[in-house]
């Protein structure tokens, strides 16, 4: 299952908070996809702490897409 | 899967300027121990504060505001005249006849960096309020540098010494309008981000921050009118208390159970800020309190905030540097990398040293060097903590 979040338009750290809260419900095998205005630099260490795999890419419109799943 | 887009960050450029800043911090500590409370030491700490903000803003402006990222390492060029100017200024206060060159370089550096920063902020689509505060801080730095350059010319014998009466205005612009505004702006996002907390009362906090900015500008405009200055300082006290209570509320509702080390430093620094403004208010009746106010503002509020936030910034820069250099390698987690005991010991010593130095300067100036010893010990603990924090990323991998 893919969990989609649209965090555009939110001031920091709300996107990070929404992602971390959504991760609590993420099951093994699921993937989370989040749209963001900014690259979530300070979220990466939090994802490392939780031993999650992730990547982030810049979209044509300047937004970012973050993908997260269990390793 | 852990590829990241490094296009919004410049870890080598920002890290280089942060290293320069920390060199001035160490120099400031050595100078207080060697010469006592001197203008040389004060301006070494000023260099630390300015350069740390140059490094932090280079890293944060694109991330927070969506502004275009600067060319890699261009921040080093922007910081070079400031670093050189401060080095010459410190040397001048120690006896070298370089005041004229120091003032010119600092003014050039302040105008160059502020112009560059404001032009980046003007193209930023996000965070208008925070961008506005950073822009105000940058403009205040130019004003402080212009007055500082004029005073440097006076000390070089090129213009009359009458301009030295502007020293309180120079200090107000540097400490309240530049440094404090910059810290308040950055804390708006750092405190909830480091605590893992939702934003609390964003509008109320924004009003408090802008009240502080307005009061700082008003204080600078009427620095030689005691009653108007008192009113401005009371407004600054109220604004700091309201903004601080908002951050406290964020800490109470945080997700992260363990209180982040950066936030412990920030909490102590905030108390120092309130004490500094209270001491400045006291100085309008009893002038020796002004020395305590400057000490609390520099050693307590600005320095402790910066070295505290530095745990996160320096750690993140080292982590990102390692990630760029060795993509795919498993790195130690940042939360486990901070040497907590050493960092807490550093905070206790810095706090003790700040309070002791401020008290000594106000009532017993002969004991300043002794009073500063705990602070120097705290600085050593901070440097050891930084080295241990960065070592797993810069020195090797797990």
> In whole angstroms, how far apart are the ends of chain B?
19 Å
**Morphology of chain A:** globular
The helix tally of chain A amounts to 2
The order of strands across the largest sheet of chain A is: 1-2-4-3
CATH class of chain A: Alpha Beta
Report the radius of gyration of chain A as a whole number of Å. 11 Å
The overall average pLDDT of chain A, rounded, is 90
CATH topology of chain A: Translation Initiation Factor IF3
Unreliable residue runs of chain A: none
Q: State the order of secondary-structure elements of chain A, H for helix, E for strand.
A: EHEHEE
CATH class of chain B: Mainly Alpha
**CA gyration radius of chain B, whole angstroms:** 20 Å
Strand content of chain B: under 5%
Characterize the structure shown.
The complex is a heterodimer of chains A (71) and B (398). Chain A is α+β, with helices and mostly antiparallel strands and 71 residues long. Chain A has a single domain, classed as TusA-like domain (Translation Initiation Factor IF3, 2-Layer Sandwich), CATH 3.30.110. Helix content of chain A is 24%, strand content 35%. Chain A contains two helices and four strands. Chain A has helices at 14-23, 43-49; strands at residues 2-6, 31-36, 52-58, 64-70. Chain A has a four-stranded mixed sheet, with helices on one face. The model of chain A has no long low-confidence stretch (mean pLDDT 90). Chain B has 398 residues and is mainly α. Chain B has one domain (6-394): Cytochrome C Oxidase, Chain A (Up-down Bundle), CATH 1.20.210. Helix content of chain B is 79%, strand content 0%. Chain B has 13 helices and no strands. Chain B has helices at 11-35, 39-65, 74-93, 99-122, 128-155, 167-195, 202-221, 226-252, 261-283, 289-325, 334-337, 340-363, 368-394. In chain B, helix 2 (39-65) runs antiparallel to helix 3. The longest helix of chain B has 37 residues, at 289-325. Chain B is globular. The model of chain B has no long low-confidence stretch (mean pLDDT 92). Chains A and B meet through helix 1, helix 2, strand 3 and strand 4 of A and helix 6 and helix 10 of B.
